[in-house]
Amino acid sequence: MFPAIRPRRLRQHPQLRRMVRETVLTASDLIYPLFAVPGEGIAQEVKSMPGVYQLSVDKIVTEAQEVYDLGIPAIILFGIPDRKDLDATGAWHDCGIVQKAATAVKKALPGLIVIADTCLCEYTTHGHCGYLQVGDLTGRVLNDPTLELLQRTAVSQARAGADIIAPSGMMDGFVQAIRDALDDAGFADTPILSYAAKYASAYYGPFRDAAESSPQFGDRRTYQMDPANAREALREVELDVDEGADMIMIKPALAYMDIIWRVKEIIDLPVAAYNVSGEYSMVKAAALKGWIDEKQVVLETLTSFKRAGADLILTYHAKDAVRWLQEA
Ligand code: PBG
Ligand code: ZN
Question: Which residue is closest in CA terms to ligand 1's atom 6?
Fold first, then answer.
């Protein structure tokens, strides 16, 4: 008449709960995004992302030191060039902003892993992730000419010291193209973290403020995925694995936990989840209003990404999260 099976027995004591905990979040799981801008002594807060800054290279190094000291193993670099053009010159030039930042960080902190985001949207006048014909106002991104620019970008980033290349533009065949280029240039040991399933999401809004990369016309739906599709994500991931990806990423994270889970079930490579800008800004906004407990919400969310199958989490909360983990 009374229940014999009592799951609550194992919840009676904090130490007991600790013993049966299935998922543990640690600093090693996290990757911290940074935005590099030209200049010196610049730390410009992003309006829609409290606590996130556009930083000049000297400040990037200071920030990277802080990240390293917290035990976070890696940063991912995005760049805002001083000039944009149709060929995305700032992306692949050896004196590009990400190249400069990567070199400076590796020089100061050889022990910190530097991931370079490999895309064109911050560097093109129109803000699309690929190559557009001169005078094209329809936003029809040309796949194969884009691959060539991505190859140049990846090789230049590797030459500058980037440890991992992370192509994010969702072009067909981009992993294969970048793998070939890296191998030819003597970077056979440089891993590729592919943004394999990246959705055309409204959650990227604040990032586009931070990276100044909004498309000037049209949208990204011809290359990023339809949020309604799941099987297609599996196909995208399988393709990238076949093309030689070493790690794969799902993005965004929160509204796509099912994708993280399904991908993890079929793929034996490390899986990363990108806890994107809009997810960060929603938490920040509610926390600033005093409507939620920021610490509890962030730790719960990040732990849930791991539970869903993420081995790595890219998150703007990384530094705060580690400090909170250290308190606990
Ligand atoms: C573009 C890119 C985007 C993000 C990273 N690289 C989004 C986009 O504009 O499509 C989003 C990251 C975030 O929202 O935090 N290649
Ligand atoms: Zn892009």
Answer: 168
pLDDT tens per residue, range 310-324: 999 999 999 999 999
Mutate to test the pocket of ligand 1, among 171, 204, 209, 315 (most ligand atoms within 8 A of CB): 204
> Region 245-257: what's the mean pLDDT?
98
State the residue for tokens 């399904």: 262
Q: Quick check: pTM over 0.85?
A: yes
Active-site hit among 59, 84, 198, 319:
198
Cα–Cα distance measured from residue 162 to residue 271, given in angstroms and rounded to the nearest whole number? 20
Q: Which CATH number is associated with domain 23-327?
A: 3.20.20.70
For the chain, domain boundaries: 23-327
198 in active site: yes
Q: Is 284 a catalytic site residue?
A: no
Omega of the bond leading into 215 within 30 degrees of 0 (cis): no
Inter-residue contact 31 to 314 (CB < 8 Å): yes
Catalytic residue among 84, 100, 106, 251: 251
pLDDT tens string 135-180: 877 778 999 999 999 999 999 999 999 999 999 999 999 999 999 9
